[in-house]
Structures are given as structure tokens and as C-alpha cells.
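Hi P.,

Sorry for the delay on this. The queue was packed all week, but I finally got your sequence through. Input first:
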Amino acid sequence: MIGLNVLLWVFIVIFAIIGYARGLKRELLVTSAVILALYVITILESYVPLIRDTAAKSVGGTIFWMRIFIVGFLVFFGYQVPNIPRVAANNRFKVESQQDAILGLIMGAINGFLLFGTVWYYMDRAGYPFSMITRPEVTSEAGKAATALIKILAPHWLTTPVIYFVVAVALAFILIVFV
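Then the structure:
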């Protein structure tokens, strides 16, 4: 049995290695995709009455899968856009230097934290809807560490109005790097 807090660090390391291979520009797209997913979820749950009411009543289930679908869909395209032949042909996403690779490593680690942390946070909010994954035992030291870690995951602090500013900063980064 492995704790979710340990699994978070494993994913951070894996995503950092992937980020090193992909470079900074590609990883910025993935970061922007995660931020956009959190923004879309926030907007849907705040301003769309059907989803807002479902989220208020739902302990897990439907709202969990909606959130995971949105995150997965946008992150998938964040990873795949640089591979579209027309986009890949202009060499904009090519890793040009060691600095680009190292910055990609850092952004990859951030993406691992954002992506796995987002899924873990929503799984916690849904009451751990899988039988093989259980809530951390708050009486143990590992459980206390996991509970403390949940409070710093991105969806916990990227709420209204912070998410609006973060989306603006992400858009600015995209404009600066790609235009």
C-alpha cells in the first residue's frame, strides 16, 4: 500500500523527467491547460445553475467525473497540440538549449503537482469513490501529512477571485512566449 502523498511526489518526479525531454514551451501549454480546466470548472460550478445545483447536492459521483473529464480533456490537448503536424512543422516547440530543457524540468514538476494534485483534491472532495483508494487515516503521521498536503493542492487555493488573476497571467505567458 502506498500513500497518496508519496504517489504525488512520484508523479512530480515522472512529470519533471517528461518536462526535461519536452522543453519549456511545451510544458507551458500543459500548465495553461490545467489552469484553464480549473477556470472552466469554477465558472461552471459558479454560474451554470444545473451544474451548480448538482455540485451542491452531490457528494461524489457525477460531479467528480465531470471535473475529471474536463481536466483530462484539456490536459490531453495541452500535451497533443505541439504534435499536430502543422504546429510541429514551424519548430517553435523545439528544445533549443540546455536551459530550455532545465526550465522544462521545473515546469514538468509543477505540472505533475498541478495535475495529480487536482485529481487527488477532487477525489478527496468526492469521498474517494474508488474501493481501492481510501481516505488517509488522520490518526497516523502519514495521514496527517496527506491531510495537510490536500490543503495546498491547486484547486484548494485557485478559487474565485484568484483563478481569474492566474488565468490572466497564464494568457500573458502564452502571448509572451509564442507571439
